[in-house]
Amino acid sequence: MKLGEAVYYFYSKRPDLQDLLLPEQIEMFKDLLDFKIKSQALSCGRGFGKTMLAGCAALYFADEYSRKIGKKVTVLLISAQKQIYDRIDEFFTYDKTLKPRLRIQPSATSGYEIPRERFEFADTKSVVYNCLPTIKQIEGIRADVIIFDEAQDILQSIYEKAIGCLKVDVIGKLIIIGTPYWEGKGSNWFIDIVSNPKKHGFKLSQFSSEICRWNDVDRWKQVWSEARIEAELRGNPPRSEQRAFFASTHLNKNIIETDPIRQGGVNSKLEVGIDWGYEKTVYTLIERIGITCNILYQKVWENTSIEILVPEIVKLLGEHKPLLVKADSLPIEYRGKVDKYTRIPIYYIDCAKRETTSEGKLISAKEHMMGQLQKKNREHHLIISQIFVDLIMELRKYKPNMDRGDDRVDSLALANYEPSEPLRVTPIGRLIFPKNMNRRYNLPSTRQFHGIQ
After folding, report:
1. According to CATH, what is the number of the domain 249-416?
2. Residue-range domain boundaries for the chain
3. E-only strand ranges, 97-213
4. Is the pLDDT of residue 414 over 90?
5. 26, 111, 222, 441 - which has most CB atoms within 10 Å?
6. What share of the chain is helix, strand, coil (3-state, %, to 5)?
7. Pick from 349, 347, 387: nearest CA to 367
Protein backbone atom coordinates (compact mmCIF):
# COMPACT_ATOMS: atom_id res chain seq x y z
CA MET A 1 0.00 0.00 0.00
CA LYS A 2 1.45 3.30 -1.12
CA LEU A 3 1.16 6.27 1.22
CA GLY A 4 -0.69 8.40 -1.33
CA GLU A 5 -3.30 5.69 -1.93
CA ALA A 6 -4.03 5.35 1.78
CA VAL A 7 -4.41 9.09 2.29
CA TYR A 8 -6.60 9.46 -0.82
CA TYR A 9 -8.96 6.69 0.33
CA PHE A 10 -9.39 8.18 3.81
CA TYR A 11 -10.10 11.70 2.58
CA SER A 12 -12.55 10.37 -0.02
CA LYS A 13 -14.59 9.00 2.89
CA ARG A 14 -14.07 11.95 5.24
CA PRO A 15 -13.72 15.09 3.09
CA ASP A 16 -14.49 17.20 6.17
CA LEU A 17 -11.07 16.17 7.55
CA GLN A 18 -9.16 17.02 4.34
CA ASP A 19 -5.45 17.64 5.12
CA LEU A 20 -6.08 17.40 8.89
CA LEU A 21 -4.54 13.98 9.55
CA LEU A 22 -1.28 14.09 11.50
CA PRO A 23 1.80 12.41 9.98
CA GLU A 24 1.67 9.80 12.78
CA GLN A 25 -1.98 9.03 11.96
CA ILE A 26 -1.16 8.67 8.28
CA GLU A 27 1.69 6.29 9.10
CA MET A 28 -0.60 4.19 11.28
CA PHE A 29 -3.37 4.13 8.66
CA LYS A 30 -0.95 3.02 5.93
CA ASP A 31 0.10 0.06 8.08
CA LEU A 32 -3.54 -0.81 8.80
CA LEU A 33 -4.20 -1.13 5.06
CA ASP A 34 -1.05 -3.19 4.46
CA PHE A 35 -2.31 -6.79 4.12
CA LYS A 36 1.31 -8.00 4.38
CA ILE A 37 1.30 -6.98 8.06
CA LYS A 38 -0.68 -9.93 9.40
CA SER A 39 -0.82 -8.96 13.09
CA GLN A 40 -0.93 -5.35 14.21
CA ALA A 41 -1.42 -3.82 17.67
CA LEU A 42 -2.38 -0.18 18.21
CA SER A 43 -1.67 1.17 21.70
CA CYS A 44 -2.25 4.91 21.75
CA GLY A 45 -3.43 7.56 24.16
CA ARG A 46 -7.09 8.48 24.43
CA GLY A 47 -8.43 10.71 21.68
CA PHE A 48 -5.74 9.78 19.14
CA GLY A 49 -8.24 8.67 16.49
CA LYS A 50 -7.24 5.01 16.37
CA THR A 51 -10.85 3.72 16.31
CA MET A 52 -11.75 6.04 13.42
CA LEU A 53 -8.70 4.94 11.43
CA ALA A 54 -9.33 1.25 12.11
CA GLY A 55 -12.97 1.69 11.07
CA CYS A 56 -11.82 3.18 7.78
CA ALA A 57 -9.46 0.23 7.32
CA ALA A 58 -12.35 -2.21 7.84
CA LEU A 59 -14.35 -0.36 5.20
CA TYR A 60 -11.37 -0.34 2.81
CA PHE A 61 -10.98 -4.13 2.90
CA ALA A 62 -14.72 -4.73 2.33
CA ASP A 63 -14.93 -2.02 -0.33
CA GLU A 64 -11.85 -1.01 -2.31
CA TYR A 65 -9.62 -4.04 -1.69
CA SER A 66 -12.45 -6.51 -2.36
CA ARG A 67 -13.17 -4.88 -5.73
CA LYS A 68 -9.45 -4.79 -6.56
CA ILE A 69 -8.91 -8.54 -6.03
CA GLY A 70 -12.39 -9.57 -7.24
CA LYS A 71 -13.11 -11.64 -4.14
CA LYS A 72 -15.48 -11.44 -1.19
CA VAL A 73 -13.90 -10.14 2.03
CA THR A 74 -15.41 -10.78 5.47
CA VAL A 75 -14.51 -8.35 8.27
CA LEU A 76 -15.30 -9.14 11.92
CA LEU A 77 -15.46 -6.18 14.33
CA ILE A 78 -15.45 -7.05 18.05
CA SER A 79 -16.21 -4.18 20.40
CA ALA A 80 -18.03 -3.83 23.71
CA GLN A 81 -19.26 -0.31 22.94
CA LYS A 82 -19.47 -0.78 19.14
CA GLN A 83 -17.81 2.61 18.62
CA ILE A 84 -15.85 1.37 15.62
CA TYR A 85 -19.09 0.47 13.81
CA ASP A 86 -20.43 3.96 14.51
CA ARG A 87 -17.30 5.44 12.92
CA ILE A 88 -18.01 3.42 9.77
CA ASP A 89 -21.57 4.77 9.81
CA GLU A 90 -20.06 8.28 9.67
CA PHE A 91 -18.10 7.36 6.52
CA PHE A 92 -21.39 6.37 4.85
CA THR A 93 -22.81 9.75 5.87
CA TYR A 94 -20.05 11.63 4.03
CA ASP A 95 -19.68 9.32 1.02
CA LYS A 96 -23.13 9.07 -0.58
CA THR A 97 -21.93 6.47 -3.12
CA LEU A 98 -21.66 3.75 -0.46
CA LYS A 99 -25.25 3.36 0.78
CA PRO A 100 -26.87 2.53 -2.61
CA ARG A 101 -24.45 -0.42 -2.92
CA LEU A 102 -25.79 -2.13 0.22
CA ARG A 103 -27.65 -5.39 -0.35
CA ILE A 104 -30.02 -4.60 2.54
CA GLN A 105 -30.83 -1.01 3.44
CA PRO A 106 -31.19 0.07 7.10
CA SER A 107 -34.59 0.82 8.58
CA ALA A 108 -35.81 4.26 7.58
CA THR A 109 -36.52 5.07 11.24
CA SER A 110 -33.20 3.78 12.63
CA GLY A 111 -31.33 7.05 12.12
CA TYR A 112 -28.32 5.15 10.75
CA GLU A 113 -26.78 4.78 7.31
CA ILE A 114 -26.05 1.05 7.73
CA PRO A 115 -27.91 -1.88 9.39
CA ARG A 116 -26.88 -2.30 13.02
CA GLU A 117 -25.85 -5.98 13.08
CA ARG A 118 -23.91 -6.19 9.83
CA PHE A 119 -23.83 -4.73 6.33
CA GLU A 120 -23.08 -6.33 2.97
CA PHE A 121 -22.17 -4.79 -0.37
CA ALA A 122 -24.33 -6.16 -3.18
CA ASP A 123 -21.58 -5.89 -5.82
CA THR A 124 -18.61 -7.41 -3.95
CA LYS A 125 -20.62 -9.65 -1.53
CA SER A 126 -18.23 -8.45 1.20
CA VAL A 127 -19.64 -8.37 4.73
CA VAL A 128 -18.74 -6.40 7.88
CA TYR A 129 -20.02 -7.94 11.13
CA ASN A 130 -20.68 -5.81 14.23
CA CYS A 131 -20.26 -8.11 17.26
CA LEU A 132 -20.14 -7.81 21.02
CA PRO A 133 -17.24 -9.65 22.72
CA THR A 134 -19.20 -12.83 23.51
CA ILE A 135 -18.72 -16.41 22.32
CA LYS A 136 -22.32 -16.55 21.10
CA GLN A 137 -21.91 -13.51 18.85
CA ILE A 138 -18.68 -14.50 17.12
CA GLU A 139 -19.17 -18.26 16.90
CA GLY A 140 -19.58 -19.54 13.36
CA ILE A 141 -18.15 -16.46 11.61
CA ARG A 142 -15.15 -17.07 9.34
CA ALA A 143 -13.37 -13.77 8.73
CA ASP A 144 -10.53 -12.48 6.55
CA VAL A 145 -9.93 -9.48 8.82
CA ILE A 146 -10.61 -9.34 12.57
CA ILE A 147 -10.45 -6.07 14.51
CA PHE A 148 -10.68 -5.85 18.31
CA ASP A 149 -11.65 -2.37 19.50
CA GLU A 150 -10.99 -1.39 23.15
CA ALA A 151 -9.10 -4.67 23.49
CA GLN A 152 -8.13 -3.86 27.08
CA ASP A 153 -11.76 -4.66 28.06
CA ILE A 154 -12.03 -7.98 26.20
CA LEU A 155 -11.48 -11.31 27.94
CA GLN A 156 -8.68 -13.59 26.82
CA SER A 157 -11.18 -16.41 26.20
CA ILE A 158 -12.93 -14.22 23.61
CA TYR A 159 -9.60 -13.34 21.98
CA GLU A 160 -8.63 -17.02 21.78
CA LYS A 161 -12.01 -17.94 20.34
CA ALA A 162 -11.91 -15.14 17.75
CA ILE A 163 -8.48 -15.91 16.34
CA GLY A 164 -9.80 -19.39 15.59
CA CYS A 165 -12.28 -17.65 13.24
CA LEU A 166 -9.50 -16.01 11.17
CA LYS A 167 -8.85 -17.48 7.73
CA VAL A 168 -5.74 -16.68 5.72
CA ASP A 169 -6.56 -17.68 2.14
CA VAL A 170 -7.58 -14.12 1.11
CA ILE A 171 -6.03 -11.73 3.69
CA GLY A 172 -5.69 -13.13 7.23
CA LYS A 173 -5.10 -9.86 9.11
CA LEU A 174 -5.56 -9.42 12.87
CA ILE A 175 -5.77 -5.93 14.42
CA ILE A 176 -6.07 -5.13 18.12
CA ILE A 177 -6.74 -1.58 19.28
CA GLY A 178 -6.66 -0.31 22.84
CA THR A 179 -5.44 2.07 25.49
CA PRO A 180 -3.82 0.42 28.54
CA TYR A 181 -5.37 1.03 31.92
CA TRP A 182 -2.92 2.58 34.33
CA GLU A 183 -2.78 0.06 37.20
CA GLY A 184 -4.02 -3.45 37.79
CA LYS A 185 -6.96 -3.36 35.45
CA GLY A 186 -7.81 -4.65 32.00
CA SER A 187 -6.98 -7.74 29.95
CA ASN A 188 -3.54 -9.26 30.52
CA TRP A 189 -3.34 -10.68 26.98
CA PHE A 190 -3.55 -7.18 25.49
CA ILE A 191 -0.92 -5.83 27.89
CA ASP A 192 1.35 -8.82 27.14
CA ILE A 193 1.19 -8.16 23.40
CA VAL A 194 1.85 -4.43 23.77
CA SER A 195 4.70 -5.06 26.23
CA ASN A 196 6.44 -7.61 23.98
CA PRO A 197 5.01 -7.42 20.43
CA LYS A 198 7.86 -9.34 18.76
CA LYS A 199 7.36 -12.30 21.07
CA HIS A 200 3.72 -12.54 19.97
CA GLY A 201 4.42 -11.77 16.31
CA PHE A 202 2.79 -8.32 16.24
CA LYS A 203 3.83 -5.02 14.75
CA LEU A 204 3.18 -2.32 17.36
CA SER A 205 1.97 1.16 16.44
CA GLN A 206 2.26 3.32 19.56
CA PHE A 207 1.68 7.07 19.72
CA SER A 208 1.00 9.62 22.45
CA SER A 209 -2.11 11.79 22.48
CA GLU A 210 0.12 14.73 23.43
CA ILE A 211 0.59 15.44 19.72
CA CYS A 212 -3.18 15.81 19.16
CA ARG A 213 -4.03 19.49 19.41
CA TRP A 214 -7.74 18.74 19.98
CA ASN A 215 -7.05 17.05 23.36
CA ASP A 216 -6.99 19.05 26.61
CA VAL A 217 -3.68 17.46 27.61
CA ASP A 218 -2.69 20.13 30.15
CA ARG A 219 -5.86 19.49 32.16
CA TRP A 220 -5.33 15.73 32.00
CA LYS A 221 -1.83 16.15 33.42
CA GLN A 222 -3.15 18.30 36.27
CA VAL A 223 -5.70 15.67 37.34
CA TRP A 224 -4.19 12.29 36.44
CA SER A 225 -1.49 10.39 38.31
CA GLU A 226 1.86 9.82 36.59
CA ALA A 227 0.99 6.15 36.04
CA ARG A 228 -2.27 7.08 34.36
CA ILE A 229 -0.54 9.69 32.19
CA GLU A 230 1.91 7.05 30.96
CA ALA A 231 -0.85 4.59 30.10
CA GLU A 232 -3.87 6.61 28.97
CA LEU A 233 -2.04 9.60 27.48
CA ARG A 234 1.06 7.95 26.04
CA GLY A 235 -0.16 4.39 25.49
CA ASN A 236 2.59 2.78 27.59
CA PRO A 237 1.56 -0.44 29.40
CA PRO A 238 1.91 -0.46 33.20
CA ARG A 239 4.96 -2.01 34.85
CA SER A 240 4.73 -5.60 36.10
CA GLU A 241 4.19 -4.57 39.75
CA GLN A 242 1.33 -2.34 38.62
CA ARG A 243 -0.27 -5.06 36.54
CA ALA A 244 -1.29 -7.33 39.42
CA PHE A 245 -5.08 -7.66 39.70
CA PHE A 246 -4.87 -5.99 43.11
CA ALA A 247 -1.95 -3.65 42.45
CA SER A 248 0.52 -3.47 45.34
CA THR A 249 0.98 0.26 44.84
CA HIS A 250 -2.66 0.67 45.96
CA LEU A 251 -2.90 -2.30 48.29
CA ASN A 252 -0.06 -0.97 50.44
CA LYS A 253 -1.98 2.29 50.95
CA ASN A 254 -5.07 0.39 52.09
CA ILE A 255 -3.27 -1.57 54.83
CA ILE A 256 -3.47 -0.05 58.33
CA GLU A 257 -1.19 -0.83 61.26
CA THR A 258 -3.96 -0.94 63.90
CA ASP A 259 -6.28 -3.81 64.73
CA PRO A 260 -9.60 -3.97 62.88
CA ILE A 261 -12.28 -1.90 64.56
CA ARG A 262 -15.79 -0.92 63.59
CA GLN A 263 -15.90 2.77 62.72
CA GLY A 264 -19.69 3.06 62.91
CA GLY A 265 -21.72 6.01 61.75
CA VAL A 266 -25.05 6.58 60.02
CA ASN A 267 -24.04 4.77 56.83
CA SER A 268 -22.42 1.81 58.58
CA LYS A 269 -23.79 -1.71 58.16
CA LEU A 270 -22.33 -5.20 58.63
CA GLU A 271 -22.34 -7.84 55.89
CA VAL A 272 -20.89 -11.35 55.66
CA GLY A 273 -19.47 -13.33 52.74
CA ILE A 274 -19.09 -17.13 52.90
CA ASP A 275 -17.06 -19.08 50.35
CA TRP A 276 -17.99 -22.74 50.81
CA GLY A 277 -15.60 -25.56 49.97
CA TYR A 278 -14.95 -29.20 50.79
CA GLU A 279 -11.29 -28.42 51.46
CA LYS A 280 -11.64 -24.86 52.76
CA THR A 281 -14.55 -22.64 53.86
CA VAL A 282 -14.01 -18.96 54.62
CA TYR A 283 -16.26 -16.55 56.56
CA THR A 284 -15.57 -12.81 56.20
CA LEU A 285 -17.25 -9.97 58.09
CA ILE A 286 -17.04 -6.44 56.67
CA GLU A 287 -18.37 -3.05 57.66
CA ARG A 288 -19.77 -1.10 54.73
CA ILE A 289 -19.40 2.64 55.36
CA GLY A 290 -20.86 4.35 52.34
CA ILE A 291 -18.60 3.12 49.52
CA THR A 292 -15.78 2.02 51.86
CA CYS A 293 -15.27 -1.64 52.79
CA ASN A 294 -13.72 -2.13 56.25
CA ILE A 295 -12.63 -5.74 56.94
CA LEU A 296 -13.38 -6.69 60.55
CA TYR A 297 -13.07 -10.46 60.83
CA GLN A 298 -12.12 -13.55 58.83
CA LYS A 299 -12.20 -17.21 59.82
CA VAL A 300 -11.05 -20.24 57.84
CA TRP A 301 -12.06 -23.90 58.27
CA GLU A 302 -10.06 -26.61 56.49
CA ASN A 303 -11.42 -30.07 55.66
CA THR A 304 -14.47 -29.48 57.85
CA SER A 305 -17.86 -31.07 57.14
CA ILE A 306 -21.02 -29.00 56.80
CA GLU A 307 -22.43 -30.63 59.93
CA ILE A 308 -19.61 -29.12 61.99
CA LEU A 309 -19.61 -25.81 60.10
CA VAL A 310 -23.29 -25.01 60.63
CA PRO A 311 -23.29 -24.51 64.45
CA GLU A 312 -20.04 -22.53 64.33
CA ILE A 313 -21.31 -20.21 61.57
CA VAL A 314 -24.66 -19.79 63.33
CA LYS A 315 -22.79 -18.82 66.48
CA LEU A 316 -20.70 -16.22 64.60
CA LEU A 317 -23.83 -14.77 63.00
CA GLY A 318 -25.40 -14.46 66.43
CA GLU A 319 -22.35 -12.59 67.72
CA HIS A 320 -21.84 -10.31 64.70
CA LYS A 321 -25.52 -9.69 63.81
CA PRO A 322 -24.90 -8.71 60.15
CA LEU A 323 -27.61 -7.18 58.01
CA LEU A 324 -27.31 -10.01 55.49
CA VAL A 325 -25.10 -12.88 54.32
CA LYS A 326 -23.93 -13.59 50.75
CA ALA A 327 -22.74 -17.15 50.21
CA ASP A 328 -21.45 -19.09 47.21
CA SER A 329 -24.22 -21.25 45.72
CA LEU A 330 -21.82 -24.21 45.45
CA PRO A 331 -21.54 -26.93 46.67
CA ILE A 332 -25.30 -27.18 46.15
CA GLU A 333 -25.79 -29.53 49.12
CA TYR A 334 -24.57 -26.75 51.47
CA ARG A 335 -27.46 -24.49 50.52
CA GLY A 336 -30.13 -23.98 53.16
CA LYS A 337 -28.18 -25.69 55.95
CA VAL A 338 -27.54 -22.51 57.97
CA ASP A 339 -30.84 -20.80 57.08
CA LYS A 340 -32.85 -23.07 59.39
CA TYR A 341 -31.07 -21.73 62.47
CA THR A 342 -30.96 -17.97 61.87
CA ARG A 343 -33.33 -15.15 60.96
CA ILE A 344 -30.57 -13.29 59.11
CA PRO A 345 -31.28 -13.45 55.35
CA ILE A 346 -28.79 -15.56 53.39
CA TYR A 347 -28.43 -15.02 49.65
CA TYR A 348 -26.79 -17.71 47.54
CA ILE A 349 -24.82 -16.20 44.66
CA ASP A 350 -24.48 -18.10 41.39
CA CYS A 351 -21.01 -16.92 40.36
CA ALA A 352 -21.46 -18.14 36.78
CA LYS A 353 -24.69 -16.19 36.21
CA ARG A 354 -24.37 -13.38 33.65
CA GLU A 355 -25.37 -9.86 34.64
CA THR A 356 -25.08 -6.38 33.19
CA THR A 357 -22.81 -3.90 34.97
CA SER A 358 -23.46 -0.18 35.42
CA GLU A 359 -21.19 0.36 32.36
CA GLY A 360 -23.45 -1.86 30.26
CA LYS A 361 -21.04 -4.83 30.07
CA LEU A 362 -22.42 -8.39 30.23
CA ILE A 363 -20.15 -10.41 32.55
CA SER A 364 -20.42 -13.21 35.11
CA ALA A 365 -21.27 -12.47 38.73
CA LYS A 366 -17.75 -13.65 39.69
CA GLU A 367 -16.13 -11.16 37.31
CA HIS A 368 -18.47 -8.44 38.54
CA MET A 369 -17.73 -8.97 42.23
CA MET A 370 -13.98 -9.20 41.63
CA GLY A 371 -14.13 -6.02 39.55
CA GLN A 372 -15.94 -4.24 42.39
CA LEU A 373 -13.29 -5.34 44.91
CA GLN A 374 -10.51 -4.36 42.51
CA LYS A 375 -12.05 -0.91 42.16
CA LYS A 376 -12.25 -0.54 45.96
CA ASN A 377 -8.53 -1.34 46.15
CA ARG A 378 -7.60 0.98 43.30
CA GLU A 379 -9.62 3.93 44.65
CA HIS A 380 -8.50 3.34 48.25
CA HIS A 381 -11.95 2.51 49.61
CA LEU A 382 -10.66 -0.67 51.24
CA ILE A 383 -9.46 -0.87 54.87
CA ILE A 384 -7.33 -3.92 55.74
CA SER A 385 -5.65 -4.39 59.10
CA GLN A 386 -2.11 -5.74 58.94
CA ILE A 387 -3.22 -8.70 61.11
CA PHE A 388 -4.89 -10.25 58.03
CA VAL A 389 -1.53 -11.51 56.75
CA ASP A 390 -2.85 -14.49 54.78
CA LEU A 391 -5.57 -12.42 53.12
CA ILE A 392 -3.06 -9.76 52.09
CA MET A 393 -0.78 -12.39 50.59
CA GLU A 394 -3.68 -13.88 48.62
CA LEU A 395 -4.63 -10.44 47.33
CA ARG A 396 -1.05 -9.86 46.12
CA LYS A 397 -0.96 -13.21 44.31
CA TYR A 398 -4.52 -13.23 43.00
CA LYS A 399 -5.15 -13.83 39.30
CA PRO A 400 -8.51 -14.42 37.58
CA ASN A 401 -9.43 -18.09 37.04
CA MET A 402 -7.13 -19.39 39.79
CA ASP A 403 -7.84 -23.02 40.73
CA ARG A 404 -6.45 -22.76 44.27
CA GLY A 405 -5.26 -20.19 46.77
CA ASP A 406 -8.02 -17.60 46.36
CA ASP A 407 -10.57 -18.68 48.99
CA ARG A 408 -10.01 -15.72 51.32
CA VAL A 409 -10.26 -13.29 48.42
CA ASP A 410 -13.45 -14.97 47.16
CA SER A 411 -15.06 -14.68 50.59
CA LEU A 412 -14.12 -10.99 50.84
CA ALA A 413 -15.44 -10.36 47.33
CA LEU A 414 -18.76 -11.97 48.27
CA ALA A 415 -19.05 -9.82 51.38
CA ASN A 416 -18.32 -6.66 49.37
CA TYR A 417 -20.51 -7.69 46.40
CA GLU A 418 -23.32 -5.41 45.24
CA PRO A 419 -25.27 -7.14 42.43
CA SER A 420 -26.80 -5.24 39.53
CA GLU A 421 -30.20 -6.04 41.03
CA PRO A 422 -30.16 -5.07 44.74
CA LEU A 423 -30.55 -7.98 47.14
CA ARG A 424 -33.75 -8.22 49.12
CA VAL A 425 -35.83 -10.87 50.87
CA THR A 426 -37.87 -12.49 48.14
CA PRO A 427 -41.67 -12.05 48.27
CA ILE A 428 -42.14 -15.83 48.03
CA GLY A 429 -40.41 -16.18 51.36
CA ARG A 430 -43.02 -14.14 53.23
CA LEU A 431 -46.40 -15.61 54.19
CA ILE A 432 -49.10 -13.18 55.37
CA PHE A 433 -52.26 -14.51 56.99
CA PRO A 434 -55.47 -12.37 57.03
CA LYS A 435 -56.59 -11.26 60.49
CA ASN A 436 -59.86 -13.22 60.38
CA MET A 437 -57.92 -16.40 59.60
CA ASN A 438 -55.47 -15.59 62.42
CA ARG A 439 -58.28 -15.48 64.99
CA ARG A 440 -60.03 -18.58 63.65
CA TYR A 441 -56.95 -20.79 63.46
CA ASN A 442 -54.76 -19.05 66.08
CA LEU A 443 -52.04 -18.20 63.49
CA PRO A 444 -49.44 -15.40 63.67
CA SER A 445 -50.17 -12.39 61.46
CA THR A 446 -46.88 -12.85 59.59
CA ARG A 447 -44.46 -15.72 59.26
CA GLN A 448 -41.03 -15.00 57.75
CA PHE A 449 -38.95 -17.38 55.63
CA HIS A 450 -35.73 -15.97 54.27
CA GLY A 451 -35.47 -16.09 50.50
CA ILE A 452 -32.70 -17.83 48.61
CA GLN A 453 -31.24 -16.23 45.50
Report:
1. 3.30.420.240
2. 3-242, 249-416
3. 118-120, 127-131, 145-148, 173-178, 203-207
4. yes
5. 26
6. 40, 20, 40
7. 349
